Amino acid sequence: MSTLVIGSGFVGRAVAAHLLHSGEKAVLASRTPPPADTGHRPPWSALDVTDPTAVRRVVDATDAERIVLVHGPSDVTWCEEHPEESLRGHAGAARVVAEAADDRRIVLISTDNVFDGTDPGPVETSPTRPANAYGRAKLAAERVLAERGGATTVLRVSLIYGWEPAAAPKWLNFFSSCVHRLRAGEHITAPTDQWTTPVLVEDVAAVTAAVLPAPAPALLHLGGPERISRADWARLIACELGLPPDRVTGQPRALGRYASRPENSCLASTLLTTHPATAGVPVRGAHDGTRLLLTRAERAAAL
């Protein structure tokens, strides 16, 4: 099977890499090419996802049977400052892709920000109440694609993390930001009252691949099995690095850049471990994922 992954950022690249490793075909498409230093790269096509003609051309040229949509601005603070651009980048682009896709299956990677954070573990049937512009834009994109019925799966994902080099835009990856800053001797300030259910990017890619074939749920939540505050997670990372936990200072989220994020950026699921499409896909918690990534980094440094 051939899959077009629209969005060549951190998550899009991981999804494409997983598909390639599984023996399937994958093509990335985005405004800018993926970094050149990320190892084996899948084919890439330049694409402005808001341009209907360009999207139709790329969909037809790649001859993809399926589409993964990982598009749009994901910086919550930027979206709050640019709500109209955020809406166009998510909902507008989703409509363009839906029209070009015809009857192809689409998997949309969405977010926990479609909830307002008052529920510590919303499930698929929980009512949505976005508390910020990013969440409103993603929810609008979900509704656009829901009009396609069974041809779409919306995969809402909690905070995604993984390993990125020091030169990467670390503000999008809390884990890597903490590792590199702590190793550089910096102290970290993180909120004690902003909770997440972090998900390793490799697990996101595996679940995405699992729901690409039909039948799959129309809506699925993917959160890690551990609920942890950002401050506690940063302390865990410090301890795993052999550093004292007091290198991390906790503060209320209202005092920092997390003010626009819900108190609970968490997800729970009634389907993830029971639906045949995803029941066998393991999802690791923050402790196991942190140790796994740091162990890999140590081995790579020793080579």
From TrEMBL:
Pfam families associated with the record? RmlD_sub_bind
Q: Which SUPFAM superfamilies match?
A: NAD(P)-binding Rossmann-fold domains
Q: Where is the signal peptide?
A: none
Query: Which top-rank group of organisms is this from?
Result: Bacteria
The RmlD-like substrate binding domain sits at 2-273
Q: Which InterPro entries match?
A: NAD(P)-bd_dom_sf, RmlD-like-bd
Name of the protein this chain belongs to? Sugar nucleotide-binding protein
What is the organism lineage in this UniProt record?
Bacteria, Bacillati, Actinomycetota, Actinomycetes, Kitasatosporales
